[in-house]
Design brief:
The chain is 56% helix and 6% strand. The protein is mostly helical.
């Protein structure tokens, strides 16, 4: 169940590729990344259950939401999370309404970080959607599906959701220090909210000035 492993960082190595879905805004793209990853986790979970081939697990698999059900249940939730990460990363409402290609270099990096955050929290979102499906399994009223996203948001606010662990693999090494400075506020907000950011870099000075709380220097790769 690789999608459900508790601690697994998302690795960022450069600006995101936003050539596809050019008609989507920044915020829509962030939310879609989340939905695509949630659907992938559900497919992986179903594959694992079917491979078990037992009556119990097959019965459990029927409780997993379909892609159509996931879309209904997760729309409000993923929109909520997309707005939350965009706000933490200091992406403005104007930036969020534009296509990613119109962002400044620092905005493109922040956009990529927001997408990575959605990828990282998707397994936890999937679990909440699964639990919500079980609780509402006997309820066939389509009108109640409109409240599913709000219900899951309430559950997440009560029980919490693990904030992402991100690994910057020389992410800013080819950029100027000013780009990192422009991204610093958003990265700091994410860390204060509970995220963990690790940067492997040849330019540790880019993260000085309070952005890095701990620095480990390697000599000869050791």
């Amino acid at each position: 169940q690789q999608c459900y492993r508790a601690v697994q960082p998302v690795i960022l190595q450069g600006k995101p590729d936003f050539n596809n879905n050019g008609a989507l805004s920044v915020l829509e793209h962030i939310a879609k990344i989340g939905l695509d990853t949630v659907n992938l986790c559900i497919k992986e979970r179903k594959k694992h259950v079917v491979e078990g081939m037992t009556t119990t697990t097959l019965s459990s698999s029927s409780l997993l939401p379909t892609e159509k059900e996931t879309t209904k249940q997760s729309h409000h939730l993923l929109q909520f999370l997309a707005e939350d990460f965009a706000s933490l990363l200091t992406l403005t409402a104007e930036q969020c309404s534009r296509p990613p290609s119109e962002l400044s270099p620092s905005g493109q990096y922040l956009f990529g970080i927001a997408c990575a955050c959605m990828i990282r929290v998707a397994p936890s979102v999937t679990i909440h959607i699964h639990q919500n499906t079980i609780m509402n399994d006997d309820d066939d009223d389509d009108n109640n599906n409109n409240n599913d996203g709000d219900r899951i948001i309430t559950t997440i606010r009560k029980n919490g959701i693990p904030y992402p662990i991100l690994l910057f693999d020389e992410l800013f090494d080819t950029e100027s220090s000013s780009t990192v400075e422009l991204c610093g506020g958003g990265i700091s907000n994410l860390i204060r909210a509970g995220g963990v950011v690790i940067s492997a870099t040849h330019r540790p000075g880019y993260f000085s000035g309070g952005l890095a709380c701990r620095t480990v220097t390697l000599s000869g790769g050791k």
